[in-house]
Amino acid sequence: MGDGKGWPAVLREPVAGRTWREFGYLLVGLPLSVVYFSLAVTGVALGAGLLVTFIGVPVLAGVLAMCRGFGRVERGRVRGLLGVAVAEPAPVRAAKGGALGTMVALLKSGSAWRHVLYSVVHLPWAVFSFSLALVLWAAGWGYMTYPLWFWVFPAFTDQPGLQLFQNDDYSFYLDSPLAVGATCLIGLALTLATPWVIRALATVDRVLVGALLGPSRLDSRVSELESDRGVVVDTAAADLRRIERDLHDGAQARLVALAMDLGLAKEKMAEDPQAAARMVDEAHGEVKVALQELRDLARGIHPAVLTDRGLDAALSSVASRCTVPVRVTVDLPGRPAAAIEGIAYFVVSELLQNVSKHAGARGASVEVWTSGGRLLIQVSDDGRGGADPSGGTGLAGLSERLDAVDGVLVVESVEGEGTTVSAELPWRV
Known about the structure:
67% of the residues lie in helices and 11% in strands. By secondary structure, the chain is of the alpha+beta class.
């Protein structure tokens, strides 16, 4: 069925592929629901009745496994016909191996019992949605095309047209031009309205499948925490590699060169004191550079000013090293958790580095405040804009780091209008 994309939206829906897929979903749902309901109710009743013996346990476990199979079919139907991907529920994990452990795990699985509930409650809804969608769809198309087929009544029956009602000796037929035209208009109105009714019915099915056949909130939260834990581990490993690289390529290399220079100066001390003095002077300069590199490295890990004086002083220190003037405003009632404070410092530091390297800005601002138990950060600049989180500016890494503590990063960057990056963090972890 073509989508008729050149037509107005209200006329396009009756012939849209999405409408027919949703209609097919509702039609197929009834026979499937009859099967689900019959097998689920029969199996649960049989298993419950047999619980007085051990046989009821495997029967109930088998019914639960069967209903999880029904759920797999329904998720596939929703994905294929309604275009909604519902995630698989958490697998049933047995605490102990063997068939008995699997049966116990199934009986204790909330997800499996939700599948049973879906198999039971979906039948009355499927009957209602099937009947309403089929009646409205058939009536709409039938009435709208009535001028094309009403001639069959006088040609093949003894009636002048479609009989609307009969009362004793009086019958009303749709046979006059006015009645035929009115019937066509009523059919057109039904045909145009029915796709929206079908869409609403299919939306209820989407909600039912997502709520009862998808992962629970607890399962989703566990998966999210597992993903966040992986991000935290990867970030920590990347930080350690960066520190090792900075030490090896920076301060360590300078200290090795410094030791060699001092050794040469020691050898020349007796034969050429002036050259030795120059070498010692150069080594003194190298010591200062190495110390500065070590201070910068320590500041990048966790600056002492952040620990001693909090975000206000630490962010002012970061802003002073930016290549453009930065206005810092920090309005906090106290100090957040140390981990959150460290992440906030890191976020602002990275964003100001982006301003220095990529923005081409004349000025920037940093604002930090709290609202509703959340720590809010906003870094803005008046640069060239066009920042893309996937463009290698470190924004994607910042977003992952914030996700690990239930934080959010939002980037607003229009070409030629500057960039505003907003971050939201919990006050406590």
